[in-house]
């Protein structure tokens, strides 16, 4: 049985006062009905960890370097994220693939570094609007999944987030049939690669998940939760999404 996951990606948003939302979430969900994860910007990680101490809310980072240490100004390693007590890291978000030219191979190397450091890697994949309109979405997903997920991944340190690029921050979402089709494909691909253990890998949907569409998306087969951007910044928005996973 896969435990559902509500993961929030704050991107480059948030502030120390903004971490008050964690207190509000803790009050609303003293016992989380699913796993709850917040990924604030790196400078806020230690503060966020202080705020979640004693609660079931997990804290993760939004990126890591594939190397353990070295001359990589501005970067941080997976081991550093683990050392402060964070448990997850997002890798291969489309905004990073786009802005920093991250390739599938680089994403896989980051995911591998994360897993080696004891973190759970949330590997993001998803097609562009042009790829969707050209009828290439499933091929793109297959290729990204193959190239971005390390071969020796174990189910408990791997989460896949399907995030169609055209749905991120736009208010547009795919049809339920399109989401279900991609999630079924991902499960099938993972099964052929990892065998029975693929049943334990959680598959998230991400892209304009809001309180009013969460329940419909979560009712789909093989959707084990969501990676949420904008609606994870405020407890009023994120809490009903968590509740929809109960
Ligand atoms: C994201 O940033 O991963 C995301 C899904 O954003 P939003 O929910 O705002 O579309």
Keywords:
single chain; 246 residues; 8-stranded parallel β-barrel; 38% helix
How would you summarize the topology of this molecule?
Elements lengths: L4 E5 L10 H9 L6 E5 L5 H8 L5 E4 L16 H6 L4 E4 L2 H7 L3 H13 L3 E6 L3 H5 L3 H12 L9 E5 L13 H19 L7 E5 L7 H5 L6 E4 L6 H10 L2
Parallel strand pairs: 1-2, 1-8, 2-3, 3-4, 4-5, 5-6, 6-7, 7-8
Phosphoenolpyruvate (PEP) binds next to strand 8.
Descriptive account of the structure:
- It is built from ten helices and eight strands.
- An eight-stranded parallel beta barrel has the order 1-2-3-4-5-6-7-8, surrounded by five helices.
- It is of the alpha/beta class and 246 residues long.
- The chain has a single domain (17-244), classed as TIM Barrel (Alpha-Beta Barrel).
- Helix 8 (176-194) links the parallel strand 6 and strand 7 (202-206).
- The model has no long low-confidence stretch (mean pLDDT 97).
- Helix 5 (104-116) crosses helix 7 and helix 7 (137-148) runs parallel beside helix 8 (176-194).
- The chain is globular and about 45 Å long.
- The relative contact order is 0.16.
- Helix content is 38%, strand content 15%.
- The chain binds phosphoenolpyruvate (PEP).
